[in-house]
Amino acid sequence: MARCLTIAVCQTGPIQRSASRAETVGRLVHLLEKAAAFGAEIAVFPEMALTTFFPRWRIDDQAEIDTFFEASMPGPETQRLYDAAARLKVGFALGYCELAHEDGRTRHFNTMDLVGPDGAFIGRYRKMHVPGSSEPEEGTTTHLERRYFEPGNLGFPVYNYRGVRVGLAICNDRRWPETYRMLCLNGAEVALLGYNTPLLLDEAPALAHLRMFHNHLPMQAGAYQNTLWIGAAAKAGLEDGQALIGGSCIIAPTGEIAAQTMSLDDEVIVHRADLDLIETCRKVNFNFALYRRPDQYKRISDPV
Ligand code: CDT
Fold first, then answer.
1. Of 65, 98, 203, 253, which alpha carbon lies 20 to 30 A from 188's?
2. Protein residue with its CA nearest to atom 10 in ligand 1
């Protein structure tokens, strides 16, 4: 019998700043219930799924900034989602802003947690590739992630989810080949990721028509070259005046898009991922043990 994992991608529409955590968590619970009704065994929510994408603003008051962060996970407002996972027996990956106390100081990470079908914490990933700047820059869309977040310090961990090896990634990570390669080398069969991607960038109006192409291109290539299933969830639509792309999808290790959202709103897509397809794709082209030559990759040619 084929080894399968039924993956749900739970795209959300915009989460306005005015929305309470309780209201937002209620939406996520509703999406998880839909995913369960569709037969999902695991679900992925977007990056920063509990709040608006606040790095679009420059905020100076640390107390105000910290209102976007979770000091504990689950916390009083998010516990309901974990209870829903246990009730529905569907685990999830959830992006949120993490306030951590490590090495004797307070730290801020853009984080995604993996939670099991019993509602228990499995593992954590902290966004490695933090884009944008720490101050607004003339002529560019304000994207101040580097003001508010440290780059991740947990590598690209891969976790056991009901016997399936699952890795995590967050938004800009999906544009970097290292993300998929490291997840693959660490044994991942499935990569779950969430994103908040502005539709328009002031610095590159000439590339505006390529936003969706450049969303899917690296994920399809990453899935194909690393024989991974990918589930990618957008936060989409007009959020606090800024348009975010949708295009949430489930991608096969063949590089094909197996399912894709059709709205910029709360929407669930589901696909029964055949994990044996990974082995088939490895046999066709990507037998790493036989063909990769990592010992040779670092050789530097003589200067010409
Ligand atoms: N959230 C996130 O990482 N967004 C980036 C946009 C960066 S624009 C400076 C992305 O790659 O989609």
1. 98
2. 172
pLDDT value at residue 1: 83
What CATH number is associated with residue 211? 3.60.110.10
Contact 111, 127 (CB under 8 A): yes
1-55 pLDDT per residue, tens: 899 999 999 999 999 999 999 999 999 999 999 999 999 999 999 999 999 999 9
Decide: 142 and 58 in contact? Cβ < 8 Å: yes
Domain extent at residue 83: 4-296
C-alpha dihedral, 75 to 133 to 128 to 61, nearest 10° = -20
- Indicate if 171 belongs to the active site: yes
Ligand 1 atom showing the smallest separation from residue 197 Cα: 12
Q: How many domains does the chain have?
A: 1
235 is catalytic: no
Instruction: Pick the residue whose CA is nearest to atom 4 on ligand 1.
Output: 197
| pTM of the complete model beyond 0.70 | yes
